[in-house]
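Chain A, query sequence.
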Amino acid sequence: MLPLSRFALRCSSLARRISTNHTVRDDLRSLLRETAQPVAVVTALMDPALSDKTEHPSRFHGATLSSFSSISMEPHPLVAFSLRIPSRMATSLTSAHSSTSLFSHMVINILSEAQAPTAVRFSRPDLYPEPFVSLPHSLTKEGLPMLDGSVGAISCRLVAASWPLHDLESLSGGGREGKPEWEGEGVASELFIAQVIRVERMPASGEDVRPLLYHRRGYVTTCPIESKTGSKPSS
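Chain A, predicted structure.
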């Protein structure tokens, strides 16, 4: 048993680390609010085990992504995103990775400036329990939904099981077997990395389609920056 003084010292050190973590998170949120993030919706087949348990059974499921990025072009085109857990989308993708024979596990739809209502629709299952109803969409050759009106859509296949972002030990190769359950306060997420296997849709040549962006807790889009010299910046 630790002496009381050492126990108090450890508690004090833990409290400082927790306080520092909260400060870093708050500062990071404030910083990222000043940057514009692309808005995308991931669509996939609903895990049948989940569909049977819902009040509004559906073959498909979709979710608005709070983080989405292209992380590699060579040698493999890869994208990454995170999903809150527990969630039906995270469960459906995990099920697809482990059991489906489909070449593609999901479609990532990159939303256009006119699709802010679509972003809300797929982020609020409490308000929109059947988001695909009356929403124009088509299907890929694997039968996965693509949302009409988007900037583009890509079919993707998970390269591995998701990574639990609340467990740094497993991320650093600590050798922990299985996925640890999240038992802390707040929200936990899992990281998904997928290989792009096909670009399903992209703007036609000369078509002026602007992306939907999330900035300062609201939806915005892009506009050109006027150059004083009239010349374009070099790449």
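Helices lie at 4-33, 48-51, 88-99, 116-121, 168-171. DSSP finds five helices and 13 strands in the chain.
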